[in-house]
Amino acid sequence: MLNWPKGLSAIRQSIRHSSKAPVALTSLDLHRSLSELLFLQELNRYQQAFIHRVFLAYPEDDLPGELEYRLNCIRHQESHYQETIEFLERRVENAINLLFNVTSFDETRSINRLTYLAFVFAPVSFATSVWGMTEFTIAPKWVAALAMPLLILSFFIAWLSTIISRKLDLRRVKHWTDEEKRR
């Protein structure tokens, strides 16, 4: 017979300890936990169906009192296990979603770093390409003289866009919290 409390406890421990591992391993552990939960859910359904068939096989009065009592206890346990499995299933799915959201957030931060790096190289690249296309030669000090103001201008635009986006984000959060307070 399957030891339900021990199996569910092992899955709870697996969920609890999976947050300390790297993202790929954590995701793998969570998906394994989810597949184990689905397997346990199917076993639980088979056991519930078996108990239901036993009750259908015997008329109400033909089932011995002790057997009926034990089957009702098992039926009650099975419904409790089903609720626990569904709870753990939702918990694992939420953990998987959270893991993917955190990973997505980290990727977004990496893209933002790359964008800021482009703010540095784009003006310098533009200045060198403008002087590289012409037939006349210009001293390198003029390239630097054009590149530095463009670099400063791009940093100013990046700084300004950061401030504007933060203010817009704050307005969205304030609007969202005001809507929540109205509800």
UniProtKB/TrEMBL annotation:
Q: Where in the cell is it found?
A: Membrane
Q: What Pfam families does the record point to?
A: CorA
* Superkingdom in the source lineage: Eukaryota
Which InterPro entries did the record assign?
A: CorA_TM1_TM2, MgTranspt_CorA/ZnTranspt_ZntB
Topology relative to the membrane: Multi-pass membrane protein
Primary subcellular site in the record, as a coarse category: membrane
Recorded GO molecular functions are:
metal ion transmembrane transporter activity
Q: Does the keyword Membrane apply?
A: yes
* Keywords, in A-Z order: Membrane, Transmembrane, Transmembrane helix
Transmembrane stretches, by residue range? Answer: 114-131, 143-164
What is any one of the record's Gene Ontology cellular component terms?
membrane
Q: What is this protein called?
A: Uncharacterized protein
Q: Per the UniProt entry, what species is this protein from, by scientific name?
A: Penicillium argentinense
